[in-house]
Amino acid sequence: MIHNFTVISRRPTINPLLSLTRISLCPKFLLPFPDKMQSSNAARAAQTVARVPGSGSEEMERVAEQTLTRYTFDGVPQRKGKGVAIVWFRNDLRILDNEVLFKAWASSEAVLPVFCLDPRLFGTTHYFGFPKTGALRAEFLIECLIDLKRSLMKRGLNLLIQHGKPEQILPSLVKAYGVHTVYAQKETCSEELNVERLVSKNLQEVILSSAEGVSTKFNPTNGTKLELIWGCSMYHIDDLPFSCTSLPDVYTQFRKSVEAKSVIRSCIKVPASLGPAPHVEDWGRVPEISSLGLQQEKARSCICVNISKLSADFTWLMGRKVCSCSYLLVQVSKGMAFVGGESAALSRVHEYFWKKDLLRTYKVTRNGMLGPDYSTKFSPWLASGSLSPRFIYEEVKRYEKQREANDSTYWVLFELIWRDYFKFLSIKQGNSLFHAGGPRKVKTNWSQDQALFDAWRDGRTGYPLVDANMKELSTTGFMSNRGRQIVCSFLVRDMGIDWRMGAEWFETCLLDYDPCSNYGNWTYGAGIGNDPREDRYFSIPKQAQNYDPDGEFVAYWLPQLRALPKQKRHSPGMSYIKPIVALKFGNTKPTSNRLTAPGNRRTATEEKWMSRKGNRFQ
């Protein structure tokens, strides 16, 4: 029975990567690479951590402020509202193109921004009891909150951070400050919807009182309202040419329909000043990760950062180990270290589109695996709401106008439409998205073998391409689109393991986790999605040959393979772990009748098509 697996053993908590925002590196730790390594990108990469975005802190802040200035009202817009409104920040941790924030400002005399650290977000997953939020994503969230708090303070507000359930915290604040409306972004999945219902119910029971220092003469006749605003997709839900219950079961039909019949709305501009805020005695501090019930893994390596340049927003970092040069030791590991927050998100868009001019080749490079620049890497900021998909759309159109329009510029929008599709699909499918049989209620005898799953999770399967991807995930909180498809196929096709175990482990680890894209992709990968034609198998040897032919990716994450000849890195024999299972179709091109069935074709066309979809912006 499924409930017997809620006590699956968990691996040690993942090492979070701390943001280096506004922090300078200690010069004595910037060591040159040996000459023999200069000619090898892979060898050089093995010695570095790629910060995403790669811009320095000053440049990152400059780009963010310049971008926000472009989306600021000219002059002073009229503000006719009364009383106090709350902005309940959820997965919309940004200022640019935030209709929730703008409507709260326009409808009030004072705005109270609130973020609730809901303990349920740090509980366990539904079926198998993994942590719902791993340490890496928690650290990324902390960085997002630091950046949002700082940005709001620049515009005359602040961010009240509260520990507890929104349905308890928000009514209490409403009563204390005489709030007439709580504004928040609308979500689509059952857990989030349940919180919305509880908040709305409890708000109706509040008897308003006035708040000191702010006029609260405005008294709504029907109590405080919860106003939910759609803002998580590129195409607005009200602009679709069909209802979500009538959403096409095939992505291509959805895409062609919205492209032909729907218009993408412009980004919402904001006033230069969003204040005032009501008088708050204690705005609270951004939490340390330990206060969320998570612990940092012992660092594999350290770099030093100058603590003298830390702003007040970063005083929570103080007290950690400092080396003899008075520089703070910050934990780092290999791979990519994503910086959380809207400033980092806007800087990454600028870096990828304009500074490095990588947009023009996105379609060609997007199936890469190694390094920060083979794809956009926008997904962590999209998932946290630090980055608006409509802003990306407008930047693509600006790029096409000023530089070039080609297949690559369109493909970024193509992927954003995939992300939209999974958002709207979650409304149509409801909780079937999380059930073993998926939306089509497919009957499959899934295995829940813990030893096999642990080997997959820990990167000990004996297949270097699978293991390298899983080690990247646990180390950085990220995995390429191609890698996600490979490890998913291996888990459910070759190992026969319940896809929900993989989906829930991804829920723990991914920086860019959101339930719609994560579970939507896993149902597709497991062959139980709403489109029956998506039942496909990925051959590990072929994937290795096509996407890591020299074994640079596997050698990066599996150091024991670096000494092997390139052609042996994916088939190292006795030099590596013995494969834990045999591949379903071995190392040769499959000829089974199963693969010639209508729902199971695996051809060059199929693999090309599959490369188009994935986790919406990596």
Automatic annotation (TrEMBL):
<feature type="site" description="Electron transfer via tryptophanyl radical">
    <location>
        <position position="499"/>
    </location>
</feature>
<feature type="binding site">
    <location>
        <position position="362"/>
    </location>
    <ligand>
        <name>FAD</name>
    </ligand>
</feature>
<dbReference type="InterPro" id="IPR002081">
    <property type="entry name" value="Cryptochrome/DNA_photolyase_1"/>
</dbReference>
<dbReference type="InterPro" id="IPR014133">
    <property type="entry name" value="Cry_DASH"/>
</dbReference>
<dbReference type="InterPro" id="IPR006050">
    <property type="entry name" value="DNA_photolyase_N"/>
</dbReference>
<dbReference type="InterPro" id="IPR036155">
    <property type="entry name" value="Crypto/Photolyase_N_sf"/>
</dbReference>
<feature type="site" description="Electron transfer via tryptophanyl radical">
    <location>
        <position position="522"/>
    </location>
</feature>
<dbReference type="InterPro" id="IPR036134">
    <property type="entry name" value="Crypto/Photolyase_FAD-like_sf"/>
</dbReference>
<feature type="binding site">
    <location>
        <begin position="375"/>
        <end position="379"/>
    </location>
    <ligand>
        <name>FAD</name>
    </ligand>
</feature>
<keyword id="KW-0157">Chromophore</keyword>
<dbReference type="InterPro" id="IPR014729">
    <property type="entry name" value="Rossmann-like_a/b/a_fold"/>
</dbReference>
<protein>
    <recommendedName>
        <fullName>Cryptochrome DASH</fullName>
    </recommendedName>
</protein>
<feature type="region of interest" description="Disordered">
    <location>
        <begin position="588"/>
        <end position="618"/>
    </location>
</feature>
<feature type="binding site">
    <location>
        <begin position="512"/>
        <end position="514"/>
    </location>
    <ligand>
        <name>FAD</name>
    </ligand>
</feature>
<feature type="binding site">
    <location>
        <begin position="415"/>
        <end position="422"/>
    </location>
    <ligand>
        <name>FAD</name>
    </ligand>
</feature>
<feature type="site" description="Electron transfer via tryptophanyl radical">
    <location>
        <position position="446"/>
    </location>
</feature>
<feature type="domain" description="Photolyase/cryptochrome alpha/beta">
    <location>
        <begin position="83"/>
        <end position="224"/>
    </location>
</feature>
<dbReference type="GO" id="GO:0000719">
    <property type="term" value="P:photoreactive repair"/>
</dbReference>
<keyword id="KW-0285">Flavoprotein</keyword>
<comment type="similarity">
    <text>Belongs to the DNA photolyase class-1 family.</text>
</comment>
<comment type="function">
    <text>May have a photoreceptor function.</text>
</comment>
<dbReference type="GO" id="GO:0003904">
    <property type="term" value="F:deoxyribodipyrimidine photo-lyase activity"/>
</dbReference>
<dbReference type="Pfam" id="PF00875">
    <property type="entry name" value="DNA_photolyase"/>
</dbReference>
<keyword id="KW-0274">FAD</keyword>
<dbReference type="GO" id="GO:0003677">
    <property type="term" value="F:DNA binding"/>
</dbReference>
<dbReference type="GO" id="GO:0071949">
    <property type="term" value="F:FAD binding"/>
</dbReference>
<dbReference type="Pfam" id="PF03441">
    <property type="entry name" value="FAD_binding_7"/>
</dbReference>
<dbReference type="InterPro" id="IPR005101">
    <property type="entry name" value="Cryptochr/Photolyase_FAD-bd"/>
</dbReference>
